[in-house]
Structures are given as C-alpha cells and as structure tokens.
Amino acid sequence: MPADDAIGVAVSTVIFSLRGSSDGDRLMLPLVRRTREPHLGQWALPGGWLDPREDLDASASRTLAETTALKPSYLEQLYTFGDVDRAPSRAIAIVYWALLRSDLVDAQRAAADAPENVEWYDVDALPPLAFDHNRIADYALDRLRNKVGYSRIAAGLLPDEFTLTELREVYEAVLGERLDPSNFRRLLADSDELVPTESFRTGKHRPARLFRYVAHA
After folding, report:
1. How many CB atoms lie within 10 A of CB 157?
2. Which of 10, 75, 154, 166 has CA 20 to 30 A from 187's CA?
3. Contact, 38 vs 87, CB < 8 A?
C-alpha cells in the first residue's frame, strides 16, 4: 500500500477461460471478493500492488497466482488505466489479460492452496465491480473478440490437439454468437496455421480428426 501522498502502481489481470454451463461452454473470468477497504466485500479483478523489485510480467504472474492460484497459458499486457478518480487515493493500474485452458483450471486450483474468495462469472453477466474494473473487463473482452478474428489466440483456450468442432466452439464462446460450421471449415481451409495430426477423437459420432497449431520458431 503506497503512502498517502504517493502514486500507487497496481497490476491487475483479466483472465479468460471456458467453463461448462447448462447451455454449453461459456467464456468466463474469475473475480476475487475484496477483504479490505475500499470496496470491502465487493468483487474485483485479481491483482495487487507492484513490487518495486519486480518486472511487470513477473508481478502479473505473482499477483494472479496469489489471488486465484491460476497460471495462464497466455499472458499479455493490455493497457494502463490512470484516471485521477479511479480510486480513493491516486493509483495507476497496469492491466494484463490472460487465457487459460479449461482443463487446467480445476487442476491448478486443486494443486495449490487456492484462496476461497474466488468465483467465476460469465463475461456478459458481471456484477458491479470495485473501482473501474467493469470498464477494464469490458476493454479486455473487446480486445479478445477483435484479436480472435485475425490471430491464433484461440490456442490459449484449447488443449494441444483439438477437433475443428472444438475450435469452432471456442470461437463461438468468445464471440458470443453461433457460426455456420460449413463456412467456418472453408475459412480454415486457407489457413497455414493449422495442421492435421494422425489422431482422431472417438465418441458417439464418427471419429473426428485432431488438429494442432503450427509451432512457431
């Protein structure tokens, strides 16, 4: 906590993952219930004060692990929020956004001494958050939805190998809309980012080939 006349620098992270719900996988993010003033008892994004001995990336990883016990598969600096009135005392927030594979969430929290004051919320149904964290979460979601259209960012939400149906479902969860399966497959046919593997996913329907993203040097 900075002195009253100092400018505090905090690091916060908006971490996205796919979580199961009654109507399929939904894009969700974890929130932490605050245990002290200001905004005691209110939900907030994971974060904490920047240690002057830390690099920013290290601080983002540390504060996320301390508040949620999560270690993302993708982490990127997003933006700096510094409105004068965003907190009772002058504070600047350096915000990161992160992605985590859904199959790793429960394992990470079970393997660590995970804090109990953490809940997952649908990105389109967040409660009123402390400080300007609703604005921050909206900004991060907009960034993710724009980036998924021109990058391989969906890889951060998927296992190493996946079917095209699973990939499409990630896009649908991120964008919040249904996509035509045939059009989606045609769009991917021109991509040099995906390669087929020799493995198949078996189940009630016919086996589906597994794909992976091309490894970048």
Report:
1. 27
2. 75
3. yes
What's the pTM? Answer: 0.91
The C-alpha atoms of residue 179 and residue 158 are separated, in whole angstroms, by: 18
Per-residue pLDDT of 36-84, as tens digits, reads: 999 999 999 999 999 999 999 999 999 999 999 999 989 999 999 999 9
Determine the residue type at 112. A
Q: Which helix (H) or strand (E) holds 146?
A: helix 133-147
* DSSP string across 93-125: EEEEEEE--HHHHHHHHHHTT--SSEEEEETTS
* Closest-CA residue to 42 (of 137, 133, 129, 132): 129
3-state DSSP call for residue 34? coil
DSSP reduced 3-state for 194: strand
Distance, CA of 203 to CA of 89 (rounded, Å): 56
Distance CA(130)–CA(112), nearest Å, equals 26
The token pair at 82 is: 């510094």
- Please choose, from the candidates 115, 126, 204, 201, the residue with its C-alpha nearest in 3D space to the C-alpha of residue 158: 201
**For 81-114, how does the pLDDT look when each residue is reduced to its tens digit (9 = 90+)?**
999 999 989 999 999 999 999 889 988 988 878 8
Contacts 24+ apart (CB under 8 A), 73-77: 73/99, 73/100, 73/101, 73/104, 73/156, 74/98, 74/99, 74/100, 74/153, 74/155, 74/156, 75/13
